[in-house]
Amino acid sequence: MHLRLANQRSGFLKETLLWAEIYPSIVRDEHLAFIEEIGTAYLGVGMQSMDPAVLRLHDRPSDSPRFEAAVRALARVTNIELQIIAVLPGDTPEGFFRTLDYALSLPASVRVYHCLVLSDALLTRSRPEWNVRFDPHTLTMRSCEGWSEDAVARTRAELRRRALAAGGKAGEFWWAFPRQPERVTQARASWRQAAAR
Predict the structure, then answer these.
(1) What is the mean pLDDT of each run of 10 residues along the chain (197 residues)?
(2) Which of 71, 93, 134, 161 is the most exposed place for a label (fewest CB within 10 A)?
(3) 175's torsion region: left (phi>0), alpha (psi -120 to 50) or beta?
(4) Which of 92, 109, 103, 113 is nearest to 159 (CA)?
(5) Contact (Cβ atoms closer than 8 angstroms) between residue 104 and residue 111
(6) DSSP structural state of residue 147
(7) What pLDDT is recorded for position 184?
(8) How far is CA 105 from CA 16, 81, 154, 172, in A?
């Protein structure tokens, strides 16, 4: 790891905020050691959804036990933010809120983003059966498979309510939840029961 070696020689990152994104599937002991050696760090962890069927639809690998172990290992050495997406085609409001509850049960802050239909992603790779409808100016998903316009509006209102009630923040197309004291069994149990169906 060249960055680790450079930091050991200079000590620069001990006094600097490291801001990065990381895939939990690649986290190894040397990454954790590096993060412990530097100063304050922020790591964004792209979670999107915890529903294996939704992740498969979007060509993303799913390994829930490994994901959770990596999140917990990272949380022991730095601040992490789990990033999930509301209004993904193939998901549902119920499935999304199971993902949110699961994310909030982990030792991390959580940020929810409203799904965007970007030119190098859903705009060119979506499937016809997803019935993607989006705002041409903001690129936000209006409706799609699993999400009516009314369901999108209700979910956005509920996210705002929950984020503010948790001491977080609500933007126009994102909602932030601060790290909570760990809530152990209920969210995890409900997710695993739903995933087993």
Answers:
(1) 72 75 83 79 88 88 82 91 96 98 96 94 86 95 97 98 98 95 48 44
(2) 161
(3) beta
(4) 113
(5) no
(6) B
(7) 46
(8) 29, 13, 23, 24
